[in-house]
Batch of 4 targets.
Target 1
Amino acid sequence: MEEFFTGRKLYGDDFTSDEIQKWFEEEKLGYYELGEHRTDPSDSFGYEKITILYLYNKILKTNRQFHKVLGIGSAFGEEFLPILNKIDELTILEPAEPFHRKEINGHPVTYLKPNADGIFPLKEKFDLIICFGVLHHIPNVSKILQEIRDHLVSGGFALIREPSISLGDWRKERKGVTKHERGIPIKWFKQKLIDLELKLIGLSRAMFALTGKIDRILKRSSFQTRFGVVMDWCICKIFSWNDIYHPRNFFQKIFTYLQPTAFFAVVTR
């Protein structure tokens, strides 16, 4: 397990088809069940301001309209609200059927159930693909990244947000997370993009660990205020050198309080 805890390899990425299927069945309702079967999407996203800063602002500078847009594991689809007026056709791959809807704020949306093997159940290509906090729930991440590449038009964008820490020992039951989720190591992710000949045109480390712990105690979200997002950007710049994936001794555990816990990536082909 050492190579997985160091982040040199990603646990689950080399699973057999049977292992992938089992993981898929056990995880497909995990996020929905964590939300206590919520049915109101109005306040469920929680990352608008930080997502706008690190991702949406990058693509909105192009001032383009996105004809076909794909969301991967987008739940209710509320993450599209900041750019909904820039989207013509929206499709979402979402395994949890309770999240499926016919429209988002009056905008039509098509929901499809994904395949466990990672092959997208559609043939068309997209101007924009969004995948926020989903890859760390999936075993065969390399396959999903390959599918993202194959379904992007030339010059299209993929926006990806993931935790960059292990989220604890995934072999044991953990509070507040689904059964199988584990973070995506940054160095592994960057190398995988190189292997797939995808261009990383923006990568930001964000969501400082100590801020998140204080927020949980105070029951607030610093990442939902402009001041909080700017402060997080400054602090994460200072501690960007700290990329411990999984702490394996006492000193590493101390340093996990002083690190960004997520990355926001803008990718193109």
Target 2
Amino acid sequence: MRKTNCLFLLCFYSACSPLFSQTVSGDSVSEKYSVNKAVDFYYSAAGKSTHLYNGGEHPGYNSFNVIGHPYLDTPALQSGKVFYDGTEYENIPLMYDITDDAVIAKFSLLPDNNIRLVHEKIESFSFGAHLFVKLIPNAKEKDIIATGFYDRTYQGKTSVFIKRKKILRDDPVENGELKSRYRQVDEYFIKKDENYFAITSYELLLKIFAEKSSDVKKYLRKNKIKFKKTPERTITEAAKYYDQLTN
């Protein structure tokens, strides 16, 4: 049990021990019985979500002389789902720190603490319009993608994944004061025929859909979808249309 769990359980036991004590506090058998009853009552009251408490505490971030924040979309918690260690949990307040690829959660039993969930135990999570899945490349794929969470914007015969990142960079000095700024940099990937491709240009996107590239190009042009302005939408729509053509 992690430190946060232990502290909570100790406080819980202190409050509840009069309910469970059978004899005077000096009786070791009675004390052991009381602790066990407190533990049982704690887990019964908390339900299955206590399984999520095994992450470390998330202290937040230092905003001094920093513009922006390290989280995706907003620094506010959003209701979401997380598939964690084989179990799906719903209506969990979540944030995603994309500087560190870390999923942050808050629970009603620990109202003063945000918990950083254990990365290795997360299979997928979602909030807002995002669905993140963990990709673990094999030896052949490691030159293309890295292990981590990817925003899956489309899944079909072809799938589209986006790696959301923020990088903290220094801004030019103004009035003798140096400030840093979080800048988001997204990376785009397509999975086709069981292979991953990094999409860094419009030309490469069309090349991946070689046998239907002319049709895809016409479709994008007709719908005024431009790679330079909206790369995410362009890649996602191209993959959808390619799948329609090849079904």
Target 3
Amino acid sequence: MSDPGTDVVDGRRGAAALLPWQVTWAASVLARRERWPHAALITGPAGIGKRALADWLARVLLCETPRADGAPCNACPGCHYIGAGQHPDLRIVDAFDRSDDDVKAVEWIVVDRIRALMQWAELTSHRGGAKVALIDPAERMNAAAANALLKTLEEPPPNTHFLLVSQQPNRLPATVISRCQRMAAPIPDTATARQWLADRGIADAERVLAQAHGAPLGALALANAEYQHERRAWLTALSSPRTLPVTSLGARVDAGPREGRRDRLAAVVDWLVAWCADLARAQAGGAPRANADFGAQLTALASSVAALPLFRYYRRLLQQRALLAHPLQPRLVAEALLIDYRALFG
């Protein structure tokens, strides 16, 4: 297993094809391939395929016999190396620690990993062509790591390209952003996303797509029975705020593996954010978006909460979501949010 400073591309991701809604975008990129920047920042909401784009761009840059339109041939040694996850001129730094036998998620991309990446960037290309460094998610670099990267972005090694992937680019230092060409990843229309999900056997594509705010890869991840069962349990409880079982709901965040508590809290915060947004829509006479399957409950609750306290609570939820990467006690956070939610209804 590679060490944190010498991450290699996952072979399955490296071999991934473009998603249907990315084809037109990819063609426009190939048309200006001769003006390719030394650093690109690929942005967009979660679940739309930003990483698939970055993997494809790495393949474009490292293909040794590209097609006439600039697309990778998928047959040369460079393409085969990427597909096998063994290309010596491609390095990926992500939010996983591969220093032990087990792959573990990490909260931050630390400076030592970026320094190791910079040392690799200074080396001569093994294949005699371009070199590509991919950082995903870029906003997970801590301050020291971002500063270390900035020094290389200011004076990039020749024929070396940096691909930064971020769903929260505003968390990156302005100095890093200014040295990258920003590329907004394409977002599929509803019909395309729904069809893509249906092709993968998702029976209720429209419902899970609404839960994922239109992001098809996010919807695919949510379309499992365990997640949907837990979501329904929480939303059913939120439907009766005056009898909300704060303690037992908080215990659900602690249930399961310890390392999954933060993810379970993140799901709870997302459910609360979407629920409150739909409550506000119901107050305004609109239809729920993310929680259409709880439309009757939301409509019944809408007249029981004042708009201003609801807005303040919603803002607190957004602030809490921004803090999820920091140390916290997931169960206590969930219980505090539930107590404040219950208080909205007197």
Target 4
Amino acid sequence: MRPQTIGRALGIGLRVAGRMASQRMAGGAESAGAPATTAAPAGQTGQAGHAAGHAAGRAAGRTTKGLARGVAGFLRPFSRLGGILWLEVTGALFSIFVAVSASFLWKNRASYASGPGHCEFLASTAMMAVFLYLSVSSFWRARKR
């Protein structure tokens, strides 16, 4: 991943988070200085209180949506990098299993056609082939990303 791409994503995420914080602070200052107009009088319940609740819910939803977009923009390059790293780590773990099965294969090499270790030879051959495929394909997929 190019450093310019990471820097751009980080900058956009920080700008969005800063804009949201300044709007939140400006909204908090306005509501602190202004009298509470959304509260219904003591004897009145119903539509006014219900509408105020909906308005507060919508405002909270917009704030949450904006925050989620900012965080997602900030984490996007890290998720790509994390996926590549995950594929490389699993490829390395699969290659350890290839090495272990190769040692069993080498130990039973004299019994490849027939003998006391013939089944172990075939099992270690199959295990090595499967884990070799998984290891190579994992590194291949990491390289393609």
